[in-house]
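Lab notebook page, bench 4
Experiment: in silico fold of construct C2
Operator: M.H.
Input chain length: 271 residues
Purpose: comparison with the prior construct
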Amino acid sequence: MSAAITVKLLDLDTPHEPSFVVDRPHGFDSYVLMGFTTGYFSRTVRGIETGRPGDIILHDPAFPQHHGTPAGQQRGFRNHWIHLVGEAVGELASKYELPLNEIIPTGEAGMISPYLKAIKKELFQRRPYYRDKISLQVEEMFLAIGRSRRDADDLKRLTPVEQELLPQFAEARALFHRTYNKPWTILKMAETLNLSPDRFGVLYQKFFHATPKDELIGKRLEEAKVRLIAGSQSIEIIAHDCGFSSLYYFSRLFKKKVGCTPTRFRRTSPK
């Protein structure tokens, strides 16, 4: 980030009367991030839209703001909100692909509340480097929103059948990572989900943006690197314990992926 972020105001789950409407036709003097915990209406780049709990909107300072309680909703809208100033806010929005002045659905009404609570605490305590800490917390919040948005976009690209299979694949993936040293093959992996190897491989890559083989090798190499640094076991034992079929295969693959031999990695890595 090129500069620190300044927090002007914030509040959590603010209640409003049904008749209350925020109307700022000329925008505001800061970015306004809102996370709604009830239904609401708001002006966006598409006009006046109604939204659901869990929706997030990030308004830029020049955008005319207008939001309130939808007709027919008995209780007034509630939302978390924070006013942010600084060039870094726009930079973070771009970095984490957060569209300005649009509804970002997350499905989690309290998604940003832990971040706002942490920021509020820093503002109150004002401990050394609190401004830097707040900037980091804002970035972490933007990252979480961006990640949620990307996850939702990925889910929309899946067919109904694929959406049903995704949780099963996530469980199987966790199993493969826990038991990385077992002699897994694509066939054995596919059998855990009663799928053909080809179907399994295609879906795995679609869900996790990596092949099952590449992920398994990556996990084994990471574990091997930890053991090379932390212990004094022979490289042959480490290779075997991490699931590699031979010392030669391990050494060749390690050099290809890491850029040096296991021996050199052990010798040059800080303990």
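Observations: Residues 20 and 68 are 6 Å apart (CA to CA). The mean pLDDT is 94.
Next step: discuss at group meeting.
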